[in-house]
Design goal:
This protein is mostly helical and 95 residues long. It is built from three helices and no strands. It starts with a helix and ends in a 5-residue tail after the last helix.
């Protein structure tokens, strides 16, 4: 029962996220990237908690999933900051 509920929520989240992202005009991508970085920062904290709890529970699967969650969230944060930095550099005066 719980698995079906979680799978349904996950599928709905994918659908809603796709619909929201495709409707965003290009002028709003940079501010949204900053918001996504903040959300990914929260995801990193959660992933670190999960990975740390796996060590205490001695569960290898949870530890591996926590590790990958940290890696993917960090990739998202670093990429978001790189894109934001590049976009802001486009608006600086040439020297």
């Amino acid at each position: 029962m719980d698995f079906t509920l979680y799978l349904t929520i996950f599928a709905l989240a994918i659908f809603v996220g796709f619909e929201i992202i495709t409707k965003v005009p290009p002028t709003l991508h940079t501010p949204l990237m900053s918001g996504a970085n903040a959300i990914s920062g929260i995801a990193i904290v959660g992933a670190l908690i999960v990975a740390g709890s796996a060590v205490a529970a001695e569960s290898k699967l949870v530890g591996i999933l926590g590790f990958f969650a940290v890696v993917f969230a960090m990739i998202n944060v670093v990429g978001g900051f790189a894109v934001t930095h590049r976009m802001l550099a486009m608006f600086q005066k040439k020297r």
